[in-house]
Each structure stands twice: as structure tokens, then as C-alpha cells.
Design brief:
Layout: E1 2-6, E2 13-18, E3 25-26, E4 32-36, E5 40-44, E6 49-53, E7 62-69, E8 72-78, E9 83-88, E10 93-96, E11 102-105, E12 109-113, E13 119-124, E14 129-131, E15 149-154, E16 158-159, E17 165-171, E18 174-180
Length: 183
């Protein structure tokens, strides 16, 4: 396996690292690659191992959650220079951008918080759009039923160091990268 890093500005290949198993995180200037295997491994962008640790590196944000009531959490995200405290949804991942905003990221949504933990906005990735299959009520049991056609499908959101949100969109005729910019 190998990891390739591209610049978002022009899409050009910045570096390729062999045998690091794919990247879980890149730091904001793309100089370090973080890979979670049995331990957390930190590599240079060229694939040289810098450090290995059983604990998640603090520079990625260490998350602690406290359930306040059904569906509402107090979440603390600790970085070397700051602890963010937000109240609301609990997310799968948290990410800090280059101007110290924090993002809660799930498979379908991104919530942006300012450095004081105030919610600034939400972006939701659209759901799949299907063309229903033409299935008769008395379809024979020994025949395979037709599957609905997927007209639009979206990937999970990613947040760039600028705070812009990206995902992929696939249709039967096209594939593209979609970008949301906060207003």
C-alpha cells in the first residue's frame, strides 16, 4: 500500500509514501502523516517513521464526552495549545482548521464551531437519490427482483485546513468533487 498527497489548490501530486498503510490524518501543512495501526505512527510526507505511540497524538485532538441528557453531550477536544468545549451532538471525528475553528464530523454532516465553542453553521451531505425499481406485487420468488437505480450518491465529508468541506458525488454519467464554502 502507499499514500499519495495532493495539493488542493492545483491537484498536483505533492508526495508519495510507500508501505505506510494509508493515511488517517494529515497535519495542516501536509508535512506529517498519521496512521492508526496497532499503534499511532507518525511519518514524514516521504514515508519516514518519526514516532510511534499507543496513545492518539495530542496534536490530532484528544476527545472526551459526557452525556448531559438524551442526545446532548458536553465534548472537550484537547490540543497542545487549547481545549475546546462544545455542547450538542457527539461526532465521530473532530478537526481544527488553520484559524482555530473546530469541526464536528459525521458520515453525513459537519458542524463548525468558533474557538469559544459557539456553533457557527452546519453542512449536511445530501442523501442518495434512487429511481425506484419496477417491482410487481406478485413477483416470482425464484427470480431476482430488480434493484433501484442510484441517480446520485455522495461520500462522507472531509474538512480542509481552510475549513472548506469536500465530498465526492457520483451519478450514472459523472463523478465529481463537491465543495462547500462557509459564508
Amino acid at each position: 500500500e502507499f499514500t499519495q498527497t495532493f495539493t488542493l489548490a492545483d491537484g498536483k501530486l505533492k508526495a508519495q509514501a510507500n508501505s505506510i498503510g494509508g493515511a488517517d490524518f494529515l497535519n495542516s501543512d501536509c508535512s506529517k502523516v498519521y496512521v492508526k495501526m496497532e499503534a499511532w505512527n507518525i511519518y514524514t510526507i516521504g514515508g519516514e517513521l518519526l514516532k510511534s505511540s499507543s496513545d492518539k497524538p495530542l496534536e490530532l485532538g484528544v476527545v472526551s464526552k459526557k452525556n448531559l441528557q438524551a442526545g446532548t453531550y458536553r465534548v472537550d477536544v484537547k490540543y497542545p495549545d487549547k481545549v475546546y468545549t462544545v455542547t450538542g451532538d457527539a461526532f465521530k471525528k473532530y478537526y481544527r482548521d488553520s484559524v482555530s475553528n473546530l469541526y464536528g464530523i459525521s458520515d453525513r454532516q459537519v458542524v463548525k464551531y468558533d474557538p469559544d465553542g459557539k456553533e457557527l453553521g452546519r453542512v449536511s451531505v445530501p442523501e442518495k437519490v434512487f429511481e425506484p425499481a419496477d417491482v410487481q406485487a406478485d413477483w416470482p420468488e425464484d427470480e431476482e427482483r430488480p434493484q433501484p437505480e442510484i441517480l446520485e450518491e455522495y461520500g462522507a465529508p472531509l474538512v480542509a485546513s481552510s475549513g472548506d468541506v469536500y465530498t465526492w458525488k457520483r451519478t450514472p454519467a459523472n463523478y465529481q468533487i463537491v465543495k462547500w464554502v462557509w459564508q
